[in-house]
């Protein structure tokens, strides 16, 4: 029998939080899928509902490649090009 101890090393944060926008109107909104079921369906539903309520919203769909690993540099770069990120977790 092999016992694994899942300990990680803390990673420094390179992104700083920003103030919440007064309105979502016209903003680029990322829907971040962590690839766990049923996040993809939840985000599609949420985006459709938000389109009804937020005029001019510019949705961007972004998905991680592996739910068990941190976001890739490409995902992190894509997130820097939006105004708001909505992250969903499944299970």
Structural commentary:
The chain is of the alpha/beta class. It is globular and about 55 Å long. It is built from two helices and three strands. It has a domain at 30-88. The chain starts with 27 loop residues before the first strand and ends with a strand.
Spatial separation of the terminal alpha carbons: 29 Å
Which parts are unreliable, with pLDDT below 50 for 5 consecutive residues or more?
Answer: none
Rounded to the nearest angstrom, the radius of gyration is 16 Å
Helix count?
A: 2
Helix and strand topology:
Layout: E1 28-33, H1 39-53, E2 58-63, H2 73-79, E3 84-88
Parallel strand pairs: 1-2, 1-3
Core attributes:
91 residues, single chain, alpha/beta, 3-stranded parallel sheet, 3 strands
In short:
The chain is an alpha/beta fold. Helices cover 24% and strands 19% of the residues. Helix 1 links the parallel strand 1 and strand 2.
